[in-house]
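## Example record

The block below lists the input lines for one assembly entry, exactly as stored, with component labels intact.
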Amino acid sequence: MFDVSTAIILIVSLVGLVVIGVHIAIALGMTSALGIWLVTGQDWNAFNTVKVMLAAKAYEGIRDYVFAVIPLFMLMGEFIGKSGAITDVYRGINSMLSKLPGRLAIATVFGNALFSFVTGVSIASAAAFSRIAYPEMKRHGYHKGFALGTVAGSSCLGMLIPPSVLMIVWGILTENSIGKIFLAGVLPGLLLTTLFCTYVLGMALFKPEAVGSGSESNVEAEEIVPRKQFYTSLAGIVIVVVAVLGGIWFGLFSPTEGAGVGALLGLVLGVIKGMRYKEIIDSILSVGRTSGPILLLLVTAALYSNTLAMTGLANAIESLFLESGMPSWAIIGVMVFIWFLLGMIIDSISIMLLTAAIFAPIAVKLGYDPIAFAIIGIIAIEAGLLTPPFGLLVYTVKSAITSIDPDVNVMTIFKSATPYWIIMLIGMVLIITFPEIATYLPRVLF
Amino acid sequence: PADAKNITVRIASGHPPTVVYAGLMKSYFQTELKKAVEAKTSHKIKFIEGYSGSIVKVFDTFEGIQNGIVDVGGFCFCFEASKLKMHAFQIMLPFGTMDPVKSVAIAASIYKQFPSLEKRFQKFNQTMLARIGDGGYNIGTNFPWKKVSDLKGRKILGAGLNLNWMKEAGVGIIAVTDGLPGWYKKIQNGVAEGGIMFPSAWGPVFKLHEVGKYYTTIGFGSITWHALNVNNRFWNSLPSEVKPIFKEVAARFELKVGEFNKVGYKKDIDWLRKNITVSDLPASVRLDWAKKLAHWPQKYANQLEKEGYPAKAILNATLDAAEKQGYKWPVRYVVK
Amino acid sequence: MNLIVTFSDKLSKLLMVLAAAWAFCLTFFIMLNISFRGIFDGMAEIVTASIVIIVFLQAGYAIRSRSMLRADFLVSRFPDGLQKFFLAFGYILGAIFFLMIIFGGWDESVLSWVENEFEGEGALRVPAWPARWAVMGGSAIALLNYLVLAYIDVFMPDYVDAELDANTGSEH
Ligand code: NA
Ligand code: NA
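Predicted structure tokens for the full assembly:
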């Protein structure tokens, strides 16, 4: 039976386990086990129910067609990533923009937005792009903090531009259409991209020393991508993304089928770009390694969300919020604050798994559009990873470049990432105020 | 009094309360139970609700009751094709009554004649409280049709055993399967052209009428293939004076869902008539179709008998029970 | 002991490779299904069962290769002894979690085989036992790997993960 002490035990145990570094999946799983035991009688029979429920959810928790989206989209991203197409596009944009001040930073924004569908976790995206883009910006005399802030900021962006594993996970957790969430992300993604680029251009114009005072205008020989190669890569990526998203949006196939098609098209692009047996096998195995932990987390998240309902905790938290008398913007504010707090210690998917099942229904009861709220949630969670003083992304960037540049201070990166963080907050507030930014496209196209 | 208990009931369904039976679990069964228990005994009742799959999904509600994850659950036999094979007996006799009240009454008389049906639930650590009948099935399409042969080559949606109503009749449709929420998009984009569905889903609840402008009342029948079950451990822990109250409220709930679906059927058909083209097929078409399916009950019964179920007796008893309710089968299936 | 570690590492990797290969094969099935709608029924049922199998074939490797997501941000500031204690504690919890899954799922898994349980009706009937046994087997390997990790991280600070190449996975 639900009471306050049960609630406190469950929350404390979950937070405690996460903080002492227990695998998030296990923290979710064992807290659920405790919760089920507490509400089913606290005796030997209750323990049996716990075991059976754990086993049942292990089998049923992700026995759903839609979960196949995750490994398949990751496979697509992996093929495209390993094919070198994204590096081509990044370099190609660089040389095309040779007259533009701050071009490397702008190419980083675009490149990272493209890149981050390769991986579901923006910290992985930030780590990888720290290695791709940072050395070049450094070579061109960029301010180190500005360069790294751009990497950290733009790796959040990719999660907002479909296809994105975060959108998939949100859709699964809250039972909203993944296709609609993909579509809802387009305008906010473009909005943030524009604001990011505007910021970079502004810096380049008014603070040229941040971008190496124009020393980058000479594109060096090894960076230049042959025109044909650039267009092949660009066209390849565009075709894959348009075919997959178009197919889903126009109802030719389900997200799962779209992901399957995407993986095959990605493979074709990879082969055109010269991938052979070994690289293909590498890509497949790489997804085998990276998808497992995420899928396993989803199994335990399903268990956890059922436990929340079973113990009555979800309802209790819901009424706590709804009956608090707070205005709805303040409730959203509390949610965002919790997301920021969590952003200090865990990655975005884990944050989503811990909170979406509780927050999304509350937001809907407050009258927010569920699809718009998905985008608000994704932006807030991503921004949380940038929030000083403990944003996880910034530490990821720092550790990724330690071998290249051990003397960059974490606070320097934070300071430079803060404008991106502010832009994301602005974007979030805009969508809270004008949900149409997110809901317009899904409404028109669905 | 000293022995007054606070009884907490975890009640759940994979379906949202917009689906008739789940809605009535919440608004009728829970309310009436609380009222009755608190009026007749000194105990208090409190519910932890798990609708819309928040504790168990549609296909694992049955197991959830078995394991004590939920105390009381409403679920469809259609998701227990392997554990509750025999319980779908009405599906095996298509073109039965379209009246949910009669459908439930027929089912009740079969359960009475064949206690093995209720006993089967004990094997899964649960006890049946009430049977739940659904609205009658018809066909919605995005094209007009008059004869069975017009359906040839069309892509038709279905779910569970009821796909056999098309397949086994040799209509020549291309069967498409998907969960109900995916139907809209599939029909909108031509991946499917129609589906077997009751009027409430075609109209107000899932809005399929927006993409499929034709609804044809063929009358496949109203099927009683949901149930409201209670976990045995929870059941045994109840004070003895509470159990009969549960049973009594559940019995009223069983009738209530039937009546509600009956009234709802008329209302939803009228609603559809106002919004799209609803055609009533002449009895000859229905007869034609039923003839094509005449071999299927026997075929399915043979298969179940091999697995040890008294399928022949149950199907024959169902045919009789329907006739006792005043229903005339378009084709009197013969199961030997 | 090292023999057990080597054996479990090889097995975990083999299962992960199988799962990855199977996920890759699914793309072709899906493509076939889109190209010839209606001819190849039951795709959804196959994918649905496959996803459970894939997850549990990958579970052991995910654990052993230290790819499971966790928050080490605070812990990494703790003194060494305390870190080890928390690590061991977390690994033991992991082992208990999977042990409970095995005990809790055993009966259903045996029944699924004995009684020929299946999922899906209509388009295609898929037997339930492969996925149920994948859960059992995968959980057993996961359990073993949590014990292996506890052993390595607490007692063998110098151990080099020879059979695993998890780090290559993150380099794109
Ligand atoms: Na993306
Ligand atoms: Na089931």
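Chain B touches chain A at residues 6, 8, 10, 12, 46, 48-50, 53-57, 59-60, 63-64, 67-70, 182, 185-186, 188-189, 191, 233 (CB under 8 Å). Chain B is about 40% helix and 20% strand.
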